[in-house]
Amino acid sequence: MEFIAQNMAPIMFASLIFFLLIGYPVAFSLAANGLMFFFIGVLLSPYSGGSINLAWPLLHALPDNFYGSRVMSNDTLLAIPFFTFMGIVLERSGMAEDLLDTIGQLFGPVRGGLAYAVIFVGALLAATTGVVAASVIAMGLISLPIMLRYGYDRRLASGVIAASGTLAQIIPPSLVLIVLADQLGRSVGDMYKGALIPGLILTGIYMLYILLMSIVRPKSMPALPLEARTLGHGVLSLLAALLAAVVVSYAAYRYLAPNHGGNAHILGATIGVIFIYVVAIIDQRLKINLMSRLAQQVIIVLIPPLALIFLVLGTIFLGIATPTEGGAMGAVGALAMAAMKGRLSLDVVKQALASTTRLSSFVLFILIGARVFSLTFYGVNGHIWVEHLLTSLPGGEVGFLIGVNILVFVLAFFLDFFELAFIIVPLLAPAADKLGIDLIWFGVLLGVNMQTSFMHPPFGFALFYLRSVAARVPYLDRLTGKQIAPVTTGQIYWGAVPFVCIQVIMIGLTIAFPQMVMHYKGAVVDPATIDIKVPEMPSLSPLGTPPAGGSTAPAAPGAQDLSQPPSFDEKPPAKPAAPATDLSQPPSFN
Q: pLDDT digit string (tens) for 97-109?
């Protein structure tokens, strides 16, 4: 009994893993373990030697945990339903279809152009939706048949689509970054700033991999044939339009700079973008043909989602809006974009609300279960056990980061990123903080690692999403009339392996180059360059020195000479005696 009482924390953690592995729902596994071990802990408390601090009145803290600032009154978590609603409305609005078609035409003449287009659109969808399922399903439905039609390798096509969809995990406004910031007690805005550069670098590494594969295996990703390029040529026209936008932006900046100061560059860029967008629409509607069809389509399709990204992320990074307010503006912007495309209907809103409610309830119940579990786990000093276990790893800070990332990588085979964030992160954060690790850097590192949970064969959710929309049986292509072979589950899994390796490389780069994340703190100030000047005050002079100007006031009689050091051997000068009173005369009162 004493052994069980003194090792309650590891037994409790192992019990939770067991319940999760046998398929019990996560929220109820957490809550049931917490309550069961609370009961056991109270009974075994006398045998624990002081390592168990549980008593029945402690259960009164649960209502405060549920309705306090950690769950029901948590303003940060409000951003989750807003961003989820925004992503689902954008998916229903057909934005992904328009983007993939247009960017595919833009990159079409290049070998591997469709793969580049999928990665580029995946990054754009990640920056607008923040929902992995929406990105993977949309690109799987739209781009996978096109890639198979023109002879792309099935493994490569499947891996590119699944990996590009998971960019929504790390590129803001990611839902997992919101949860990580909440669990680490840090600002969501700082987490977004820290994750932006690693997300963009990961996107670039994906494209570099496609470039290498196009050189090593050129037949695995052919360029689009000429008859498939329906928008024709027009890259030079697009470049000329972008140059015109830059000129207008610079002119607007010079005009606005005297009155708007630091905001002039933002306002100037906004004016330039609006100008080129209006010109493209007028050119298309009136058929002036000032631009090529390709340039018109790229500008008209790209600018609305880019404007939405600025509306959400730009206002957060500039400090104009909180992440919750940015999510609310993004939801309104998504509704406006769907209305402009004529695809906003009551059914779309109902589906978006239903999906948002389902996901938000899922997150909330996991968080409530996590609060029950943590109440008991902290009561049996589980946090101290985890802290001692992790801080004693060899290698100091680097050893801790490597060990923690291996742990999260292995657990990601079995747990979803929400489950990892609510169960594992609260246990890791105190140890990281004690080692002096910046928690924003630590959170972004975990976010990149949790991204692999979507790509792990055989339990990766991105692979499941793609499997649900990929062809299972042979089918006739609607354009060519040829029979297309199906995509097997093995091809989807093997296609994901290179991108999982790339994500692991990205984890190593984030550890090796922390400044990719630490830039969120702004420019570092060198204390040696700080020059503090104290203004001179002529009316004051140092003690014992004559005032500036050389003039010296006459000393009062009997005053001590302060210009000389004091002597403790000399007797003080005698005071003059008072005049004697003549007592032979009567007193005078006048």
A: 788 888 888 887 8
